[in-house]
Amino acid sequence: MGAIPGQAECFQHRGALTALDSAIFVGGTAVLTGAAGTGKTQLAAHYARTVQQARMVDLLVWVTASSREAIVTGYAQTGTDVTGADPGDPAQAATRFLTWTQTTDRRWLIVLDDLADPADLQGIWPVAQPGGLVLITTRRRDAALFGQKRRRVDVGLFTPAEATGYLAAKLAAQDRSDHPDQIAGLAADLGHLPLALSQAAAFLLDLHLDCAGYRTRLADRRRALADLAPENSGLPDDQRATMAASWSLSTEHADRLRPRGLARPLLQLASMLDPNGIPATVLTSPPALAYLTEHRTLGESADALDGHKLAASAEDAADALRCLHRLSLVDHTPNTPHQALRVHNLIQRATREALPRDQHDAVARSCAAALYSAWPQIERDTSLTHTLRANVDALTGHAPRVLWQPEGHPVLFRTGDSLSASGLVDATRAYWEGLLSSSRHHLGPDHPHTLGIRQLLANAQADSGDVGGAISAAVELLDDKVRVLGPDHSGTLTTRMALAAWRGESGDAAGAVTALGELLEVFLRVLGPDHRSTLAVRVVLARWRGESGDADGAVSAFAEVLADSLPVLGADHPDILTARQHLARWQGESGNEDEAVSLFADLAEDLQQVLGPDHPSTLSARANLAHWRGKAGDLDGAVTAHADVLEDFLRVLGPDHPGTLDTRANLAHWRGEVGDVDGAVTAYTEVLDHSLPVLGPDHPHILVYRGMQAYWQRESDLEGALTALTALVEDMLRVLGPDHLSTLATRSALGRWQGESGDVDGAVTTYSVVVEGFLRVVGPDDLSTLEARAALGRYQLESGDAGEAVITLTENVDALLRVLGPDDVTTLEARTALGRWQLELGDADEAVIAFTELVDDLLRVLGPAHPLTLDAQMILAQWRASE
Question: In CATH, what class is 717-819?
Answer without folding.
Answer: mainly alpha
